[in-house]
Amino acid sequence: MTTARVAAILLAKELRLEFRTRELLNATIVFALVVVVLFSFSFDPTSAESRRLGPGLLWIAFLFSGSLMLHPSFAREQANQTLDALRMAPISSFAVLLGKMLANFLFLSAAEVVLVPVFAVLYNVSLTAVLGRLTLVIVLGTLGLSITGTVFSAIAAHARMRELLLPLLLLPILAPLLIAAVEATASLLAVEPTLERAWLAFLAGFDIVFLTASWVLSDFLLEE
Amino acid sequence: MRNFHFLFAAWMAVWAVFFVYQVSVARRVSQLRDEIERLKQQLRES
Amino acid sequence: MKARMLITIFAVGLVFFAGYAALFIAPDERTMHEIQRIFYFHLGCWTAMFTSLVIAFVANVGWLVKRKPHWDWLGVSSIEVGVVCCTAGLITGMLWGKPAWGIWWTWDARLTTCFILWLLYVSYLLLRGLIEEPARRATLSAVFGIFAFLDAPLVYASNRLWRTQHPAPVLFGGPNSGLDPTMVKVLMISMAAMVVVTGIVLLDRYRLERLRHELDELRVACEARVVQSGSVPSRAFRS
Q1: What is the pLDDT tens value at each position of chain C, 239 positions in all?
Q2: Which ipTM did the prediction report?
Q3: A36-56 burial by CB neighbour count: b if 16+ within 10 A, else e?
């Protein structure tokens, strides 16, 4: 079976698992909403202020709720020892990782689909003109978040204090991605929306580099 | 000499950082050596 | 033993000569005058740090491929030493920035990526403390170390790719960059001094790691012996 097919099967499994209880998705969406709403108390959302501070807030909300959601990704497997079963199956470790990355990407995207309109309403920013480009930026950023997050939750799964460890490991490594995503979003929300290709290239480059690194190191991540 | 105190502070800071680290490593090395000797002695006796 | 003494004396001599050269041999700089002399220590720290981090990267890969413990010892030692060099570099940078720019810190590309690098490698050290089983600890921290190293080229290239508060490169930079020949010589001596000192500290840290391993093996042997003889409960050895 090809890697892609295995990943698709595992992705279906993750989705089925999640939609049975929907607990992760609900928690992620609610947490992100809480973050966004709480932040709106800290400043008066006039248009100018929102344009300045909004993009950062949005991506921080994505990052926090993402970190919360990524942790159970491997913790669940450990609790039921299903990871051993996956290891013993004749499939590549990268396929396992890829399945999880795609699942995390979809969950995070679902949360973002709810979050972005709420953000637009609460912070008085109009998104209709830039919706296509904004989607591209958010997709690329979320991909980076999912790829790196899945890898690091595999690492943190074997450590103590993993709820604290995962954000601790994740935030520094994601900082360049976050900066690029925030800058790109900010330029799109400006009075004259622009999007420099450099930021897109950086985001795409980040995703490709980390996906390649995960592919090379996938066996070691899922080791006994 | 303009800003000499910053220059001096930088020079001291660099070597202080290395010195403190080296001393901490050396201290741990000698602690470990003592512990290893103790255990070797115990093994010889038993 | 004698080799260590000789190397240490050589290192101390080199350090003093580098300090003398930086203060008295290097010519005066046009705009910043005396404070510019921090440059020689500052770049020395970064050279030493990048050397350590490259060694760490090689060690991380070495462990994953070969699985011999000395690769793991080399990995943690060089990363810890690298963090020390990074700390020294950041401190000298701030002590130069305050008189030269008027600010202790700013979030330009160079300083931000460098601070991230520092955080990443500190996280590596934290991660190691939180995984109990030695082989797994070595493997997972090696993987994390490889990911962390992906930020290092970004730090190096940051003041070439973007316009930063931090000065543009003077070595191998674009047109209009370049350094007075005497300055280059003093810089080389300073870099050599710091790399030699870092090397000595690295070797000592490596020895510490090797001794820890030896101690663990001895503890296991003692425990086995005692449990075998059945005299003292093995709890007594949990120090």
Answers
A1: 788 888 889 988 998 888 888 888 878 777 777 788 888 889 999 999 999 999 999 999 999 999 999 999 999 999 999 999 999 999 999 998 888 888 888 888 889 889 999 999 999 999 998 888 889 999 999 999 999 999 888 888 887 777 777 887 777 766 666 778 888 888 899 999 999 999 999 999 999 999 999 998 888 888 888 788 776 655 555 55
A2: 0.87
A3: beebbeeeebeeeebbebbbb
- Chains C and B touching, counted as 3 or more CB pairs less than 8 Å apart: yes
Q: Which domains does chain C have, with CATH numbers?
A: 2-165+179-219 (1.20.120)
CA distance C104 to C38: 15
Residues of C contacting chain A (CB within 8 angstroms): 64, 112-113, 116, 119-120, 123, 126-127, 130-133, 136, 139-140, 142-144, 146-148, 150-151, 154
Q: Cβ of C146 and A217 within 8 Å? A: yes
Distance CA A218, CA A221 (A): 5
A152, A158, A176 ranked by CB distance to C113: nearest: A176
